[in-house]
Amino acid sequence: MVSKEKVLTLLKKAYLKNDTVDIVTKQYIKNIVIFDSEIIIDIEIDNPTLKAKQKFKKLIKDSLKDSLPQNCVLNFNFKIKTSHESQPTIKGKSLKNIKNIVAISSGKGGVGKSTMTSNIAISLKRMGFKVGILDSDIYGPSIPSMFDISEKKPMSTVNDGKSVMLPVENYGIKILSIGFFTKIDQAVIWRGPMASKALNQMIFDSYWGELDFLLIDLPPGTGDIHLSIMQSVSITGSVIITTPQNVALIDARKGVAMFNQKNINVPVLGIIENMAYFSNPELSNKKHYIFGKDGGKNLATDLEVPFLGDIPLIQSIREAGDVGRPASLQDKSYIVDHFDTVTKNMIQEVIKRNKNLPKTEIIKIKTMSGCSAIK
């Protein structure tokens, strides 16, 4: 008489190719039912192909054939793991040559996130750091325009025997963006998996070289691209960009909540308030709070996160971005002083974070259903 225990014992000696754990311990075998000479084995796999099923059948038959009576009949029931149990589209890997990865985020579009990313990058470069920007805003990439490299294309090279992309470089900043691969009037209409695949290529099929900081310019909101990035690499910390008015602050609060969520847990380095006020130093020092006063500063206090500083509403910042030469490149300008201040504050928070906290884990969320609404 064949017993269930005997079958399980035999299958504990069965290993898939390249696996170091047997198929029972890895929980592929869900149940075994025996009726006289018939043995029914329930198997759960994440690959629905016929080839994968045949591989399991052959492995099990080969493992049992010498230990079971000849009249035994093996039957198999295959169950495919549901989507929330499958692996994420982007799988976590390490970026050995990059010391700090900082996500620049905003809940609301139009608050100047890409402008802030560009100018912080330039400030870091002027301070002597090696800097790169990953423009992860798949549907609205702005960084190529802000660095006057929209017409450029990444070159290829060979690294460790593998063909990889070389980031486009301008003003000493290494940059990769989906904008290099699309025309200026071409809309990117992709579902999440396709966008994740493109990000995967820009992150891992590229050669960044040695970097002190990789700034990731995230798209607005708290969606699929954000999760894909955080499933992909270990983020040192995040910076939230907002403007002072309530409409922007509501979404900035959600951005902080996303990074603070238990199964994400990316340190928030601080909040930057953009377009904080308008003034014309050439005429007077009077400040005009067009969008409200101290909204970002008060939000930082309320959420108990650092306030990294504010940037005034200045026409030349916009003009500099439009012509592809970030305002932080200007010499001896009060504009540069503002960007240097928020950059230095960010660096201080990075130093504190690296000293006091362990490396951020790559998140284990496998689908959007894994990231429930925060209560």
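^ that was protein a. below is b, sequence first then the tokens
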Amino acid sequence: MNYSNLDDAQVQEIINRLKHPKNQLTFDQIYNTISAMFGKIEVDETIIDYDDIQYILHIFRGRLNNERFSIHLRLKDFHDHIVRVDIHPSNRHINPDGKVIIGSHIHIYSNKHDKRDSIAIPLKDSNFPNVNQIIDVFTEFISYTNIRKEKDNE
């Protein structure tokens, strides 16, 4: 698989792959961190799939607006976002076709454009639940990307 130029089927395969955190204790700390009502959050956690492909799970919330945050899963070696959810972004997003997206949205990797996450889909029009609290979005995100808290025993 050419991880720098994935087609839609390969992206879906990556999303569906069973993944787990490299460090279980750190993953437990994420729940505690994002449960905080206020303040900045910046988390980078290494995630691994059964082929030992490494990803970074990134969670960001600024210190000023607690309702605005982003969660994404990207390939560690290529830095391309596979999935990114932006909740209450401050700007409108303009898709490559000129369509303006306002409000919470999801980006799914696409090799149709040089910037692989350039297409935004409003949450209400996607297959990602339309939730907006950080703990709910995180829970849905790890379910959507098939990240399990613990590695399955084989």
